[in-house]
Write a structure and sequence with these properties.
heterodimer; A: 110 residues; three-stranded antiparallel sheet; 5 helices; 3 strands; globular; B: alpha+beta; 4 helices
Chain lengths: 110, 172
């Protein structure tokens, strides 16, 4: 996979970013919603319709795959491709946060 | 004793889904809880007033069972279906997000599904009419054309309103 192939997904929306974060382990959709609420400390609450659509889009883009099924519920996890997208996004965010910190420090010293 | 029920006939256009949701919530606060939907017909059951949330999703067609199972697992009750629209209720005490769609992309996608159906069905009326044109008496043709113009206008209004909402979402 080329670098461009990853870049076309970036920047991820906040919702997509958290969904990819949640799916580093196999989870079904509702568990992912709960996990995202926890991870974001209640800031990002993904609606059930949004999650349903997002999962089917991510599946189609081969960023996640279906791991298995517990009872009636399908479980999903990141593909290698999904992992690469997530890693690149995290690097970008880390850089952005670094730049932001620098700017804030400058504002404070001025 | 059976709970009291009431049947209300009311028409909402494709762009009035939010008004419809508000109306159903208002009915519930007055103790009338939606229990069944059919074409232009709402059946309510009387009970204690509740501050439940009603949401409509436009979702015609495939994978319906899986989709409904997914949404109901997240705490929503599925009340019924009216021409592609799914009616959901979230009880007031549910510890869940009171929205089906929480980000711009999925809200836009939902509006686009509605527009898609409008676009797909609108030419159908004209085609059916044109193919049978020579068979009709004049008065009927005039009546039909009037009806068609009216319908086209409503379809256009629906699409323009929905496109407006998409634009507004994209500006955020």
């Amino acid at each position: 996979m080329t670098q461009n192939d990853v870049k076309k997904y970036l920047p991820l929306t906040e919702t997509t970013y958290y969904i990819l974060l949640a799916l580093v382990e196999p989870l079904h959709g509702y568990a992912a919603i709960k996990k995202i609420s926890q991870l974001s400390e209640g800031v990002v609450n993904v609606g059930a319709g949004t999650m349903y659509n997002a999962l089917s889009n991510l599946l189609q883009e081969n960023l996640i795959f279906q791991v298995g099924q517990d009872a009636r519920r399908k479980m999903y996890q990141l593909t290698a491709r999904g992992q690469r997208v997530l890693r690149t996004q995290v690097e970008r965010l880390a850089h952005m946060a670094g730049c932001g910190q620098e700017a804030l420090t400058r504002l404070e010293t001025e | 004793m059976e709970p009291e029920t009431k049947l209300v006939r009311r028409l909402f256009w494709a762009w009035q889904d939010e008004q419809e949701e508000q109306w159903l919530g208002e009915m519930a606060r007055q103790g009338w809880h939606l229990c069944q939907v059919a074409l232009l017909t709402y059946t309510f059951q009387h009970g204690a007033p509740r501050n439940d949330t009603y949401r409509l999703d436009y979702k015609p067609g495939r994978d319906m069972a899986e989709y409904l199972a997914f949404i109901t697992e997240a705490g929503w009750e599925h009340i019924g279906t009216m021409s592609g629209w799914q009616y959901f209720r979230l009880p007031e005490d549910a510890d869940e997000t009171a929205e089906l769609y929480t980000d711009v992309e999925s809200k836009i996608a939902r509006h686009k599904r509605i527009i898609g159906t409008l676009l797909a069905t609108s030419p159908a009326f004209l085609v059916v009419f044109m193919s049978q044109m020579d068979r009709y008496p004049l008065w009927f043709a005039i009546l039909f054309v009037t009806f068609f113009v009216l319908l086209t206008t409503l379809y256009s209004i629906s699409m323009i309103k929905l496109a407006g909402r998409i634009k507004q979402l994209q500006r955020l």
